[in-house]
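Onboarding guide, step 5: your first structure request.
Type a short instruction followed by the sequence, for example:

Predict the 3D structure of this protein.
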Amino acid sequence: MPATCQVRVLGGFSVIVDGRPVPTHAWRSRRAADVVKLLAIETGHRLHREQVMELLWPDLPAEAAGANLRKAVHYARRALGGPEAIGVDGHVLVLWPDGCLDCDLTRFDQAADAALTSGDPQACAEAAATYSGDVLPDDRYEWWAEERRTRARTHYVALLRAAGDWTRLLELDETDEEAHRAMMRRHLAAGRRREALRQFEQLREALRERIGVGPDAKTVALYQAALAEGAEPPSVAQTVAVTLANGLVAWGRRNVEEAERLAKSARALALDANLGHELGEASTLLALVAYARGTWHEQFRQEFADSVRRSAQLEGAVFDAHLCFQEFYLYGPEGHEGAESFARDLLGIAIEADSTAGRALAGLLLGEFALLSGHLDEAAAHLSQSLTDAQQAGCLSAQSIALERAAEVRIRQGDRTEAVALLDRAMPLARASGIRSHLVIRIHGLRVLAASGLVEALGAVREGERLLAEATHVCDPCSMGFLIEAARACARANHLGRARLHLAEAERISGLWQGGPWSAALWEIRAELRRATGQTAQAAALFLEAADQYSTLHRPIEEDRCRAAAVTFG
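The system replies with structure tokens like these:
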């Protein structure tokens, strides 16, 4: 057996044996490479064979899993050059036991531990430089790699923090508030007041995407101190920024009254100065307060009525701010009942104000209601009119959602080609909108649903997974459609580990709001997983549970689908 083996798992997977790279085709099977990956990322590069079986084939009986393991080890040994490449110590598999094994992850761990123990910033910076990327990024949805990936990344972040490398920390996470504060202090110490103020705005912009999250009190105080150093008084936009930031601090401290007072003050200033961006932030905070008090309908109606009498820019800002709350209204515990009358009320307000954008937003809600009720032709008509109005008003987010929902109508009607064309039109609009972290992932979910077969569906799943992995922030509620469809596609393709990861994330988000269509969809996915593992009687029972919940929520398309599945597997 060759004497040296170099394994790279940071930033990707590759193996070099005695100076010669192992080509991808040499593995012969994906699981052969997975066995080597598992042993490489494990401390000591050794694992009991039963642990490997449980990690790679958790749904198979021991005998079948054992047979698969023997085959995978056989191919792995051939790829690495000989039977000694993976040794056996009792029932323990050992990677490269008798030669020189060099693993980049092991070297990084050792360097990180030593540097963090020393507390020397320079040593931490040098150790951080050896981190060439996350552990096995191409296996992001293999649950057996997740814990090791998280541990290594945590080490890396700790090294950057100890080294004071705030720039690289912000490249990793634009919402790292400690890093932003450190950069603000650095700018102020160097006399760069404008840069310090800009740094705060960058943080505020990053946090804006996370509903209800704003800079904390320390950061706001630092920003106010920077403003006070200037010869000129703060601008209206800067005053609104401080007011909103303090309002979010109050909200975080559960001081609802103070949060509402500050949000209303910011909203009034933004309206007077025609600041659409800031108005949207104030509306988001007011929506949070209204939701907590159970008065969201009244709040949105009032803001809608106020905004349609002003500029289209302000109308769009209000709509964008309330998007997640509107979707929760449609998908929350009580379902979409009442949405039609609410939408017609908004439409009347928009018509009276002669507001094209207002008509677009009200028509969109009418189309969504019709779609969820199973009235597909009616939904298509409303969505077509909404799209026309949104285009005339220049409202990108409304155009994106109208196209997205129209694509869903086409999918339900069986026209997948047209659905994909509509989604292709929606994607650039979603990316260009002010709420891309909400809209883009929704389109990815429908791409999975619109796929013509499992191969195409899994390709769409991978694209969505890449977005979730690479984006700084993706809205949790808006990601539910993708998570549900990804779990369904993975279960049907027998990629059960990935299916369970998507289901677990969907369950976490759904757990914030009990009941509703999300809950019914999760029962349906659990049924798909039971079906995939051959538990057909349990699958039929879970499909019936989902159907009953869909029936209660007046979702006929989903109810019929689940009842048909229950009959098939019952």
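Each response can be followed by summary notes, for example: Residues 404 and 491 are 25 Å apart (CA to CA).
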